[in-house]
Amino acid sequence: MNQKRITIAIDGFSACGKSTLAKDLAKRLGYVFIDSGAMYRAAALYCLNHQLIQDGKLDKVGIDSQLSQMDIHFETVVSESHIFLNGQDVSNEIREPKVAEIVSIVSAYKPIREKLVEAQQKMGVLGGIVMDGRDIGSVVFPHAELKLFVTADPEIRVQRRLAEMQSKRIEMSVEEVRQNLAERDHLDSTREESPLIQVADALVLDNSQLTKEEQLDWVLAKVNLLVTN
Ligand code: DC
Residue 136's pLDDT band (boundaries 50, 70, 90)? Predict the structure, then answer.
């Protein structure tokens, strides 16, 4: 039987396990997985590399004039999705603290959001996609069949982000991670352009006490109801 290929929008604060869930779901369903945060991180790296942000201040005129030259896309490398910035694989570099420190400032700038949202919407035209971020259910795919808002206890999020950093051999102290997450939570949810919100039709998933497998099963049960009805 040909099952409907739906759009799944996953939103939530940083380090709630959204990307892990999105990746697992996409793999299980044979869908495309898009980590939209990686795209904002690549845009932030572009700004760093071109001196378009200094002391936390954006050079908006410079960004406006160079934005058309910023190419961000995904490619599959050894069955993993990698992100490329103007032809260079930046999948690891975008996780570095220098990017984490400024990404919320860069992602709050409207022209950058407009460019990336347009690219995200193009990737989703055919359905069969799982995308995670902050504005996926509210702005990118407001008509997504399934919207999830993922939350987790703040200290659990700190521990998860630390473990991620350690696995990538990036040095950050617990305090640095805690502070960076708190700052980004604040900026991401209070900015003027597409702030992180929990939309009314999103299902809330608190995964503080769930394993990866448990959260996947929980979501797959919801997906099954949608694709078989
Ligand atoms: O999910 P992440 O931590 O990798 O996201 C990095 C930053 O990008 C985050 O601080 C906010 C921003 N972001 C956004 O504004 N909109 C999205 N759809 C995804 C991420």
Answer: very high
2 lies in some domain = no
Q: Does residue 36 line the site of ligand 1, with CB under 6 A?
A: yes
Residue 20 above 80 pLDDT? yes
Residue 1 in domain? no
* Residue 134 beta carbon below 6 angstroms from any ligand 1 atom: yes
12: helix, strand or coil: strand
Residue 40 alpha carbon, nearest atom of ligand 1: 8
- Band of pLDDT at residue 3, cut at 50, 70 and 90: confident
> What domain count does the chain have?
1
Task: Locate 187 and state its tokens.
Answer: 């900026």
| Nearest atom of ligand 1 to the alpha carbon of 104 | 10
* pLDDT score recorded for residue 1: 57
Q: Which residues pair with 148 in a beta bridge?
A: 10, 203
The answer, yes or no, to whether any atom of ligand 1 lies below 6 A from the CB of 133, is yes
The whole-angstrom separation of Cα 156 and Cα 174 is: 12
Q: Write out the two tokens for 179.
A: 């502070």
Whether residue 37 has its Cβ less than 6 Å from ligand 1: yes
pTM above 0.85, yes or no: yes
CATH number at residue 194: 3.40.50.300
What range does the domain containing 49 cover? 7-228
For 12, 18, 45, the CA distances from 74, given in Å and listed in that order, are 22, 18, 15
Tell me if 157 CB under 6 Å of ligand 1.
no
Q: Which DSSP helix (H) or strand (E) runs through 224?
A: helix 212-228
How far is the C-alpha of 118 from the C-alpha of 140, rounded, in Å?
Answer: 8
